Amino acid sequence: MTPLFLAFLCLAILVILILIRVPVAVALGLVGFFGYASLDGFTRAGLAMGSAPVELAQAYTFSVVPLFTFMGGVAAVSGFSKDLFGAANAMLRGTRGSLSVASIFASGMFGAICGSSVATALTMSRVSIPEMLKAGYSPSLAAGAVAAGGTLGILIPPSLILMIYAIIAQLSITELFAAALIPGIILIILYSLVAVFISRTAAPASEQTPPAILPALGKIWHVVLLFLVTIGGMYGGFFTPTEAAAVGAFGAILLALLTRATNMSLLGKTALETVRLVSSVIFIVMASTIFSYFIVQTGLSNAISDQLLNGGFSGLSVILLLCLIYIILGCFLEGISMILITVPVVLPLILSFGFDPVWFGILLVILIEIGLITPPLGLNLFVIKAVSPELNIWDIYKGAFPFLIAPLVLIIMMIAWPEFVLWLPSMIK
């Protein structure tokens, strides 16, 4: 059995295991271990299995994951999202469709301290959907705006998925966060334009008087301060990513207690939830490391690159093909799993065609966002249904579909003008 045949066989087995609901960490670990053992024997495979946890434990950069995750968890239980929604609504002055646009803007601001798409969609569903329905918005627009806004949680820094990608691809977390900022702002604008267009028929002509703008803005000072200190401090070179994450976690606790937005009991529960989430991520990353060892040994990535280069494929055709594959995978796989399974295979291919890995990381996150709101299996859609059971699932599907236009337009912009993604990273190098 040739190494390449073994690689394709193991990939097929991996897909089958995931489809039958075997946990991703178990599937990756088993396929990686036995695949490696088939090439180099069980002794070498055992050494690889033993070294993966040690390497991960020694990775200083991985400490940002639990710290930023905890910061986002504190923000989620502290009611910051309600203040953000009120401030966004006040700034938009109650015009037609303002609540749907306010939901998107608030999701973007909440994502700046959360880092999770599911947490953003979950939190904003509780805050903004009841307000939109009470104001006479169609259920589809209310659900679609929240589903789309929720995806911003994994693009606007600090993003958990970008952190995982940086660790797997051995890239600077600071550069990735900087690269995500401009695309994140553009996506907020594109989502808002879609919401305004839909609001012509799905929102009332006149809405309730919004809150006064200055008092509403005064309620979000703590969120702005937290973002400026953590992310701004990292961009400005005052903190390393790990230091910024530690400052952010401490700052979130301090601000939540000072504003009496939470209590020690909720903070304790948030800490436990963070431990559960990060523990599962650690196991998946360890298993992915073993799987990566196996893929490298087979030479699969180099073989695919050689075939595409010799076949006359252009870089554009390769990117478009990968976009199609990731959109399909996004309908079935969760974002972190998708990155850990595919990046070991795809990244060498991207590099061989001369694409920047930082640019590709942002593109990959946007493709994952598409999967999150693509009917019928988009994860954000089911989160909204769970939080708002009064909504019909078909209304949620109908509402999410038009918002798919926004990330697709952003992808076209990124392919045509990659410079706007790489400009900020080049400034902080």
Descriptive notes:
The protein has 429 residues and is mostly helical. It has a domain at 63-282 and 375-428. It is built from 21 helices and no strands. It has helices at 3-19, 24-58, 64-77, 80-91, 98-114, 117-134, 139-151, 160-169, 173-202, 213-218, 221-235, 241-258, 264-298, 300-310, 315-330, 335-352, 357-372, 379-387, 393-400, 405-416, 419-428. Helix 16 (335-352) runs antiparallel to helix 17 and helix 17 (357-372) packs antiparallel against helix 20. The longest helix has 35 residues, at 24-58. The N and C termini lie far apart (46 Å). 49% of the residues are buried. The mean pLDDT is 83. The chain crosses the membrane at residues 59-80, 101-122, 142-169, 176-200, 220-238, 245-262, 274-296, 308-329, 335-355, 362-384, 404-424. The complex comprises the extracytoplasmic solute receptor protein and the two transmembrane proteins. It is a multi-pass membrane protein. Its main location: membrane. This is TRAP transporter large permease protein.
